[in-house]
Amino acid sequence: MAFEYVIGPVIAFVLSAKFTIYLNKKSENQIAGIRRSLTLRDARIEKVEAEMNQETDRLAKIEESIEVIDKQTLAKMVSTMQPVASALKEIQSFVGLR
Questions:
Q1: Integer Cα distance of 92 and 56 in angstroms
Q2: Percent of all residues in the chain with a pLDDT value above 90, rounded to a whole number
């Protein structure tokens, strides 16, 4: 009778200890998997941020070139329209409108 009082708790303790070790290993594997996925996610985020910075730089360069082109276009339009305006004034004075 004393045999059951000793063996039962020992078996229960051994089984619970083994189950606890199993659950701890399983949890460690899950944590390791989560850490790997976080590392991969961080690497992807860094890659996207680098690409975004490149695109931002590219956009800034394009905006600068557009501003230069706008200024050049304005100067060319003025230089083109100036002879036309002076010729129009000559015609108006010749006809007598002014």
A1: 52
A2: 65
